[in-house]
Amino acid sequence: MKTVLITGCSSGYGLETARHFHSQGWNVVATMRTPRENVLPRSERIRVLSLDVTQPESIAAALQASGPIDVLVNNAGIGMLGAFEATPMATIREVFETNTFGVMSMTQAVLPGFRERRSGVVVNVTSSATLAPMPLVAAYTASKTAIEGFTGSLAHELRAFNVRVKLVEPGYGPTTRFTQNGEARMAGLIPEAYAPYAQSVFAAYTQPAEVTTETDVAEAVWRAANDASQQLRFPAGVDAMALAQSK
Fold first, then answer.
1. Closest Cα to residue 108, out of 125, 95, 94, 120?
2. How far apart are CA 137 and CA 97, in angstroms?
3. Is 205 labeled as catalytic in the residue annotation?
4. Nearest to 144 by CA among 201, 220, 79
5. pLDDT tens, residue by residue, 105-148
6. Contact predicate 185/139, CB 8 Å
7. What is the pTM of this model?
8. Of the residues 140, 194, 197, 205, which is catalytic?
9. Segments making up each domain of the chain, as ranges
């Protein structure tokens, strides 16, 4: 029986991905900064662990507690919506610490075991913001685009060791807690000069033509984790797939 470790499982895509892998018969290590065991089914095949991907000691403790894993899903991420001009560099660094360096740190931590066993999959969850320019998300997009380049290069680097590296690119998911979780971080990031433009952008966000669901992402992560080909990108959701096809 295979084991998957998923970061950022307290809600949204990570939570639904944990549920999906469990329903498929896998052992699931669901990690989150503040463990919430009641959000997942009671099962001998599910363990909930504390993990902060920005803290090396937390990463080491979680991986020691989890034991050997077959798949790492780097899903943990934080949102950023606002005018770049008004965004403090400290806030931008905070976004990169989780969305970029957190992914790299988790990946680096599991690679020795994967390489030695000549088996393993890393699935990095990014965003459809990497597929087409979108307004008011410059810093967030940069943090995710860095992982796109990182993943593509690493996939080549690890192929000789039979270790696969994949990308899942979710579209716009208004039903997740993603924006809600970042509200404090984004306060004051729309200066008065940007307000008229931002209002039109927000109006478009509230009435999207197509959206991505948590299930779309969970199924894309499942496909990526089990894909034995050299396919790198797995857009998730009809909007993300449309953007990917238009590139």
1. 120
2. 16
3. no
4. 79
5. 999 999 999 999 999 999 999 999 999 888 999 999 999 999 99
6. no
7. 0.93
8. 140
9. 3-246
